[in-house]
UniProtKB/TrEMBL annotation, chain A:
Pfam families: Aminotran_5, GcvP2_C. GO terms for biological process: glycine decarboxylation via glycine cleavage system. Keywords: Oxidoreductase, Pyridoxal phosphate. Residues 351-448 form the Glycine dehydrogenase C-terminal domain. PANTHER family: GLYCINE DEHYDROGENASE (DECARBOXYLATING), MITOCHONDRIAL, GLYCINE DEHYDROGENASE, DECARBOXYLATING. Residues 147-277 form the Aminotransferase class V domain. The keyword Zinc does not apply. InterPro entries: Aminotrans_V_dom, GDC-P_C, GDC_P, PyrdxlP-dep_Trfase, PyrdxlP-dep_Trfase_major, PyrdxlP-dep_Trfase_small. The gene is gcvPB. GO terms for cellular component: cytosol; glycine cleavage complex. This is glycine dehydrogenase (aminomethyl-transferring). It comes from the Archaea. The keyword Oxidoreductase applies. It catalyses: N(6)-[(R)-lipoyl]-L-lysyl-[glycine-cleavage complex H protein] + glycine + H(+) = N(6)-[(R)-S(8)-aminomethyldihydrolipoyl]-L-lysyl-[glycine-cleavage complex H protein] + CO2.
Automatic annotation (TrEMBL), chain B:
NCBIfam families: PRK00451.1 (NF001696). InterPro entries: GcvPA, GDC-P_N, GDC_P, PyrdxlP-dep_Trfase, PyrdxlP-dep_Trfase_major, PyrdxlP-dep_Trfase_small. This is glycine dehydrogenase (aminomethyl-transferring). It comes from Halocatena salina. Keywords: Oxidoreductase. GO terms for biological process: glycine catabolic process; nucleoside metabolic process. It is an enzyme of class 1 (oxidoreductase). GO terms for molecular function: glycine dehydrogenase (decarboxylating) activity. Residues 11-430 form the Glycine cleavage system P-protein N-terminal domain. PANTHER family: GLYCINE CLEAVAGE SYSTEM P-PROTEIN (PTHR42806), GLYCINE DEHYDROGENASE (DECARBOXYLATING) (PTHR42806:SF1). It catalyses: N(6)-[(R)-lipoyl]-L-lysyl-[glycine-cleavage complex H protein] + glycine + H(+) = N(6)-[(R)-S(8)-aminomethyldihydrolipoyl]-L-lysyl-[glycine-cleavage complex H protein] + CO2. The keyword Oxidoreductase applies.
Length: 479, 442
């Protein structure tokens, strides 16, 4: 398959001009027409000044220069881009969904019930006793989970200082643990791509607050020794944290709670198909076992009485407080609820089955070294050329490339996650793109992409002389 | 036929396709692909009934229909402004809505340019040269400002000084963000809704690492001594962080001109409908913190044909490269909300945005005057200029709040004797009716 992405240019500029380059106006702000005395106002304001048709065309042109899941496959490993059904947008757009967070509980019973139901559903799916919906992203969920672990240890009089993270884990794990004030201990991977039990035993100790683990891990491998891993961590007095990035592979087949995990986050924008709008918003609910429940952030939702009449927000007894100003990304959570209700038990289970089938099928069709296996919903192929170059060339084939050069355990890694939404024909096209690219000559690969809105972008210059606004652009152009 | 009834409605596999793919992989069933030890296999049910699309929409509409249809006069950091219809339609284009982080910039120029424009608009509004692509909300943006301070602060200061009236939720978030640093959070007194400069001057010493002030404040008052606050902070070698709001920025003193080193605040009030607290944190700062900025940055560069092009940049600060040494753990942010906010601002234009901000001042003044004319109500309580919201004193605030609710209005009771009332253009037509209802219930 060949691909040509739309590109908009103006004759004199060779690019779609910025809003400010099309037209902008400076207005006086203070003065007689101001509602405030002059010493409380700014002097002037300069902003783009365009008509609605000019704006709708500008943004429509920008949309045409952007690739989304409805344009074609998006097998970005660990990021799980799958179809975001439109009907969930209709649910989120219901006027009655639009409420202020300071409304009285009596006046938002519908909202509270939906939050309660989502808490319940996520708890059952993860095998967790209680769930908070507050964290506005996966990494915010990690931070929340680690703060909960910290509160638990402190409450038990333990001053533990370390969090262990496998070196193949998501970068957010390290950053979240550090943000919570922990020293991060990196755990090298074993020869089979999984946790090395001896290395883990050597790493844990009285200082261990938690081990953060993704299962299946970032190589797409199920940590078969999970029960032993849980025992080692628990015996040392630590907690086991589950990174939900790869929960797609387990729906209905295994639950973090049953595997011995004490705390986990869910990525609703991955597992439950809520759109990820160019990098967010997402939502990162956190689930915990019974003994950690009292530390959850406030507010949580519960039934007002045992007869199930009504719902209310409340603060858990030893709550860590808040990780978001209000109740998190409600509209995203609402879409996740709608998606889960649409699929139900059978649909969730089948989504996992097909995601795993697609990963294994695609891995079998590409002429790359794909170490380890069997794979859950993603695999990591090893490119013979530079993985970043391969990725650029794949763009010309109308596919978004896999995640590149990570995890580091695999040389020139192409971390690939086709998800359940691709049919065999698309997977074959993807495989063809993978295979065709490696057969091409180096000059072709190094000058790719040819058919996208922009050709290869000079990222080194962007970092060396940062120009982060149109104001900086003007200064630069004047030099 | 695909498995619309028995499987995921979004998995396209026909039974024969599934069989062929299993054969290609070399297994007999999907179950064989799951490499899960027996002792952790789950064989239960979630008990979640599968529903049709129509049924899900109807059921959620019915549930949400249980929310009372109230006219909201609520604020306290979360504000309702009209979103032009075209913004919904164009932002919902799937190329925006269903895309991921722009790790491959050549195929994501549209979103990158839109985010570059959002950053530029913040630079214009704040006067500061660096703005990021978004934080989750105002509270987390303030938390990130504090952790930035911990990385760049002068050797001794360990205190983040915040207003004593700071919204408890915001303070709570900041406390969590600094829990992994050496910093601690303390408050300074306020005087009639604004910072108490005399008390603050006494408090300032080299122990202060960050001085935080807000305008408008949590009570809707406009801070009148911003330059003095900035001077106090800098005289103590502390950073000055100003918390504000995307609409207020169009009218109130430019943060750079009052000495702000960092500006944080809420930007989702332009771009999002009322969303039960979902937001967009704005973050801008001085050039010297560039390599310590949390979150994502879009920069301009050139492509191989020397055309201008945009890319995520300075990624060596970020968690996926620097891991535990990253400037923050943020990965997913609020990019799509930032897109919508930029669209809204462009839709208003400079005149429209300034007019909207002026209306926030006059609207609050008119409504306060209207309520003040009622026997038993004093408004505004603070003798200040207000932006969108103000405090009204009544004899029994919780009771008045409750009785207003039965008449179709939502206001906030902050304690036994004080209501907080917020107005924007979205409830402007209901201000008179609120006053009438208030007259009946006080």
């Amino acid at each position: 398959m060949r691909y040509d992405q739309a590109r908009w240019t103006e004759d004199e500029d060779r690019y779609e001009p910025l809003l400010a380059e099309k037209r902008s106006t400076t207005v006086d702000v203070g003065g007689t027409e101001s509602a405030l005395p002059e010493d409380l106002t700014r002097e002037s304001l300069t902003l783009p000044d365009l008509s609605e048709p000019e704006l709708t065309r500008h943004y429509t042109r920008l949309s045409a220069m952007n690739y989304g899941i409805e344009n074609g496959p998006f097998p970005l490993g660990s990021c799980t881009m799958k179809y975001n059904p439109s009907f969930t947008e209709d649910v989120a757009a219901l006027p009655s969904a639009s409420v202020h967070p300071d409304r009285s509980k009596a006046s938002v019973q519908g909202t509270l019930e939906l939050l309660y139901r989502l808490q319940e559903y996520l708890g059952r799916i993860g095998g967790m006793d209680a769930v908070t919906l507050q964290p506005p992203a996966g990494a915010a969920g990690e931070f929340t989970g680690i703060l909960i672990a910290k509160a638990y240890h402190e409450n038990n009089g333990n001053d533990r200082t370390e969090v262990i993270v496998p070196d193949s884990a998501h970068g957010t794990n390290f950053a979240s643990a550090a943000l919570a004030g922990y020293d991060v201990v990196s755990l090298p991977g074993g020869e089979d791509g999984r946790v090395d039990l001896d290395a883990l035993t050597a790493a844990v100790g009285d200082d261990t607050a938690a081990l953060m683990l993704t299962n299946p891990n970032t190589l797409g491998l199920f940590e078969r020794d999970i029960t032993e891993i849980a025992d080692i961590v628990h015996d040392a007095g630590g907690l086991l944290y589950y990174d939900g990035a790869n929960l797609n592979a387990l729906l209905g087949r295994a639950r973090p709670g049953d595997m011995g995990f004490d705390v986990m986050h869910y990525n609703v924008h991955k597992t439950f198909a809520t759109p990820h709008g160019g990098g967010g918003p997402g939502a990162g609910p956190v689930g915990v076992t019974e003994e950690l429940t009292e530390f959850l952030p406030e507010p949580r939702v519960r039934r007002t009485d045992e007869h199930g009449n009504g719902f209310e927000l409340f603060t858990p007894e030893r709550s860590i407080g808040r990780v978001h100003g209000y109740q998190g990304n409600w509209l995203v959570l609402l879409k996740a609820y709608a998606y889960i209700a649409r699929l139900g038990d059978v649909g969730l289970r089948d989504a996992s089955a097909k995601a795993v089938l697609n990963a294994n099928y695609l891995a079998s069709q590409i002429e790359y070294d794909v170490p380890f296996g069997p794979f859950h919903h993603e695999f990591v192929a090893s490119a013979t050329n530079d993985a970043a170059d391969i990725a650029k060339r794949m763009l010309d084939y109308g596919v978004h490339p896999p995640t590149t050069k990570w995890p580091e355990a695999v040389e020139q890694a192409l971390m690939t996650e086709p998800t359940e939404i691709e049919n065999r024909r698309t997977l074959d096209q993807l495989a063809k793109a993978f295979n065709a690219v490696t057969a091409e000559d180096e000059a072709m690969i190094e000058t790719a992409p040819q058919r996208t809105a922009a050709r290869r972008i000079d990222q080194a210059t962007a970092a060396r002389t940062p120009r982060l606004s149109w104001q900086a652009l003007d200064e630069h152009d004047e030099q | 036929m695909t498995n619309h009834d028995t499987g995921s409605p979004f998995a396209p596999h026909t039974p024969s396709e599934t069989a062929a793919m299993l054969a290609a992989v070399g297994v007999d069933s999907e179950e064989e692909l799951f490499d899960i030890p027996e002792d952790v296999l789950f064989d239960g049910e979630f008990g979640i009934t599968r529903q049709s699309e129509q049924s899900v929409i109807e059921e959620t509409a019915e549930l949400l229909g249980e929310n009372d249809d109230l006219t909201e006069f609520l604020g306290r950091g979360h504000y309702d402004h009209y979103v032009p219809s075209w913004v919904d339609h164009i932002a919902d284009r799937s190329e925006f809505l269903t895309s991921y982080t722009q790790y491959q910039p050549e195929i994501a120029q549209g979103f990158l340019q839109a985010l570059f424009e959002y950053q530029s608009i913040l630079v214009e509004l704040t006067g500061l040269p660096v703005a990021n692509c978004s934080m989750y909300d105002a509270a987390t943006a303030l938390g990130e400002a504090a952790t930035l301070t911990s990385r760049v602060r002068a050797a001794t200061g360990e205190t983040v000084l915040v207003p004593e009236l700071l919204d408890a939720r915001r303070r709570d978030v900041v406390e969590n963000y600094v829990s992994g640093t050496e910093l601690n959070v303390e408050s300074y007194p306020m005087d009639d809704g604004n910072a108490d400069l005399t008390a603050l001057e006494r408090r300032m010493d080299e122990d202060v690492a960050l001085l935080y002030a807000e305008t408008p404040t949590v009570r809707g008052t406009i801070e009148e001594q911003l330059s003095e606050l900035g001077r106090l902070a800098h005289a103590a070698d502390a950073l000055f962080c100003l918390g504000t709001d995307i609409v207020a920025l169009a009218l109130l003193e430019e943060p750079a001109s009052v000495g702000a080193d960092i500006v944080v605040g809420e930007a989702g009030s332009l771009g999002l409908p009322m969303s039960y607290g979902m937001g967009l944190g704005l973050f801008a700062c001085r050039e010297r913190f560039l390599r310590q900025v949390p979150g994502r940055l879009v920069g301009a560069s050139n492509d191989a044909t020397d055309r201008r092009a945009y890319t995520l940049t300075l990624q060596t600060r970020e968690q996926h490269i620097r891991r535990e040494r990253a400037t923050s753990n943020i990965c997913t942010n609020q990019a799509w909300v930032a897109l919508r906010t930029a669209m809204c601002i462009a839709s208003h234009g400079p005149d429209g945005l300034v007019e909207l901000a002026n209306d926030c001042v006059t609207g609050a003044r008119e409504l306060a005057d209207g309520l003040d004319a009622i026997d038993g109500v004093t408004a505004p309580v603070h003798d200040r200029h207000h932006f969108r919201e103000f405090i009204a004193r009544v004899r029994d605030a919780p009771d008045v709040r409750k009785r207003l609710e039965t008449r179709g209005f939502a206001v906030h009771a902050i304690d036994d004797h004080h209501l907080q009332v917020c107005t924007t253009e979205t409830n402007a037509d209901e201000r008179d009716r609120l006053c009438t209802a208030m007259e009946e219930v006080v």
